[in-house]
């Protein structure tokens, strides 16, 4: 029995959440195939599975669409296929059928830490399998070997004014990497569509590998001395990302990055950054152009900016009533906020109806590494107080905290205090999820996305409205 099957026998819920064979995570700990070699074996199996499934169930109805949904941002419409993760209202996100706690137990970790390595999660997202430690080490080395960015991209970043938002610089640099797109070149030369996945894979590997150098250069230029440390070929992805930021000397921060990059990587396909990347990719734009578009969506206040907005609100609360504020003072502040027509950021979720497991994972990290931090103490108080107030207020379907309610406090504790940069961290992480799906989109021949739209006048005519 494989390691994961033994694990799954104890965690039967994971298997029940992954009815398709390709979604069920499997361990190949005894194999030493590279990710691309294993993927090449899996693709024909997955293509056959999807073809058979569509033939048998293609006419089945997933749900209905209401006028409210059409006007409400398509919220809740079931109309996308996303292999990497599924969000359950009660259990939270599952990566290929595995919950976050199960991923923390099953995925390989660094020898000096306990948090799962993002490389292991990427392997899981692409293949549906839990890799061996040897395979993860090989992927770390491959990303390090691909990490150098072209000189003209370095110059492009260096010439950006410090006043240009870090996310704008990030998107600009990713777009510039398209200069060397293997997919774009192969498409121009006439590659057969059955092989689209191969150059998409190569572009994705190069893109992910180069993100730490890009993100690190932006951080060092805008906030520090402009000097960027070299990637260490013998270290993992999170260590190297921490190194280019200038935090490699703090092993706890490196562990935080491993956790952060893993849990922020993927969250179904309907969120703005994921859907945008998928949509642009459906036009056969290469991974660089597709991911850059997703980054522009992630930069919005209603998406990736949320974590820094929560931190700013928390710091404002601290400055207003004190970090040692009593429960009564906090409740009054909350009611003043709500009665003033404002929301309490970091609480509530469009799908979840319980505490976000990503929040819980960060809280457990804080309890282990910074239990006496005063700001974490305040966040803990809020965790115990806010849900009750929001429930009494009665206008929030889910009064529990989401992922954004905690991440900023952890980053502040380790000295990464530049809040405008937080979405760049999110972007590096989100690349793992959205680009893994791009590979699968091309492998499965997913078509150009083109939903039907109506005008208000046409809708009124359809329903006989005056």
TrEMBL record:
Listed GO biological process terms: carbohydrate metabolic process; citrate metabolic process; tricarboxylic acid cycle
Lineage, opening ranks: Eukaryota, Fungi, Fungi incertae sedis, Mucoromycota, Mucoromycotina
A Pfam family matched in the record: Citrate_synt
Presence of the UniProt keyword Transferase in the record: yes
Range of residues in the leader sequence: none
Keywords associated with the record: Transferase
GO molecular function: acyltransferase activity, acyl groups converted into alkyl on transfer
Keyword Transferase included in the entry's annotation: yes
UniProt protein name: Citrate synthase
InterPro entries from the UniProt entry: Citrate_synth-like_lrg_a-sub, Citrate_synth-like_sm_a-sub, Citrate_synthase, Citrate_synthase_AS, Citrate_synthase_euk, Citrate_synthase_sf
GO CC terms of this entry: mitochondrial matrix
Family of the protein in this entry: Belongs to the citrate synthase family.
Active-site residues from the entry: 303, 349, 404
Protein species of origin: Circinella minor
SUPFAM superfamilies hit by this protein: Citrate synthase (SSF48256)
Domain of life of the organism encoding this protein: Eukaryota
